[in-house]
Amino acid sequence: MSNGFVSRGFRGRQKPGDERGRIPPGQYLERGFPVLSAGPTPHTPLATWDFSLLGEVDQPKRWTWDAFRTLPHEMVTADIHCVTKWSKLDTHWEGVSVETLLEQVAHDAKYVIAFSDGGYTTNLPLEEVLGRKAWVVDAYEGQPLPPEHGGPARLLVPHLYFWKSAKWVRGLRLVAQDEPGFWESLGYNNHGDPWKEERYRGD
Fold it and tell me: What is the C-alpha separation between 160 and 133, in angstroms, rounded?
């Protein structure tokens, strides 16, 4: 069953005059949905897709695609902000909250490392993915999430720059110590708050 949800800073439909206050510094409004990837687009068959919780957990947890689809899904309306300076307002997603997933394991972790098909990783403090601030989404605008936008499933962390919303996500590794991910190790900011313009290391 789906429940409606509007993330912090990502409100329902607003009047046109309200758009300016929803776009972080240095960003511009994008009506389309640019496709940006660090490598080729994976096309993982649903029959072989799975999602795992690994690392410092009492027991690793794994879901097949069919099992993942039975988890409680939520509707999420969010504004998203890319480090390349575009922002897109009122995007609509459906997925499972990271909080719901982490309730399935016991752990003492302080960070999560999202890992994806193609070798991509990104790191997040646990506090940034709890409190209904992050989801693993499998639908966009009422349709299955297409591969070019990270399907069959991607991480969605809309309050941070969009590189933190890892495409083609296959799991979360829970860790006690922070570990820079793919872009973070190449000079991107470790946190990525668009309202503070945390684009690159030192911002």
Answer: 10
